[in-house]
Amino acid sequence: MSGLFLTFEGGDGVGKSTQAQLLEDWLRERGETVLRTREPGGSELGNELRDIVLHRRGDMAPRAEALIYAADRAHHIATVVRPALARGEVVVQDRYLDSSVAYQGAGRTLDAAEIRRISLWAAEGLLPDLTVLLDLDESAARSRIDATRTTYDRLEAERAEFHQRVRAAYLELAAAEPDRFLVVDGGRPADDIAAQIRARVLELLSP
Ligand code: TYD
């Protein structure tokens, strides 16, 4: 028996965590066993790597950054996600390999195909059953972040152009794999978005 692997993607401030939480609550109400997790982080080692990659001061070479995300992914998928899927659980995850392609590929201008290959190697080829992309204009996303806090992590602190490249890369990824992606307008009311996501997930749940 194998479970279901659902990932949430999008820029910073688009509302991924809110939607992941709403989906988790709905799945639990239906009686599903849910593992809610995230990258970077999601394991003990991952939380140490998360702290380094998001908060370390000073320079970090883009390839070093890419490999830290990949190291986090390798450990997380092997020790947390695959075991949960093998138990037949529904994994609801904030961010996965598409984040690396968008942020390290388009954002840091590394080669997108190489970044994808490194991620797939790290995760031994695991792809999500469904990836929800919350799409939102960069300035709207920035206003949402600014409304809630005054400190930024290393990636959030990047310039607007960085985040515009990330957004464009996500839309390209979604267009290239329409069966895996559900693209949702992140500017819609949260309840509307949640309903769209539930409708798609329902199709994937076994009857
Ligand atoms: P996230 O956990 O979404 O941040 P927050 O908890 O503040 O909402 O993600 C942290 C940052 O890491 C985010 O800016 C995107 C970045 N990131 C990458 O650059 N590459 C990756 O592979 C992943 C998983 C995240």
What does this molecule look like?
- This protein is of the alpha/beta class and 207 residues long.
- The chain has a single domain, classed as Rossmann fold (3-Layer(aba) Sandwich), CATH 3.40.50.
- It has helices at residues 16-29, 44-55, 62-86, 97-107, 112-122, 138-148, 160-176, 190-204, and strands at 4-9, 34-38, 90-94, 130-135, 181-185.
- It has a 5-stranded parallel beta sheet, with helices on both faces.
- The mean pLDDT is 96.
- The structure holds thymidine-5'-diphosphate.
- The site of thymidine-5'-diphosphate has 15 residues, from helix 4.
Question: Any descriptors?
Answer:
single chain; 207 residues; Rossmann fold
Task: Give the CATH class.
Answer: Alpha Beta
- Briefly note the structural class of the backbone: alpha/beta
Number of domain units: 1
Question: What is the number of beta strands?
Answer: 5
- Overall radius of gyration: 16 Å
* Cofactors and ligands: thymidine-5'-diphosphate
Number of helices: 8
SSE layout and pairing:
Elements: E1 4-9, H1 16-29, E2 34-38, H2 44-55, H3 62-86, E3 90-94, H4 97-107, H5 112-122, E4 130-135, H6 138-148, H7 160-176, E5 181-185, H8 190-204
Parallel strand pairs: 1-3, 1-4, 2-3, 4-5
Bound molecules: thymidine-5'-diphosphate.
Provide a quick synopsis of the model:
The chain is built from 8 helices and 5 strands; from the N terminus they run E-H-E-H-H-E-H-H-E-H-H-E-H.
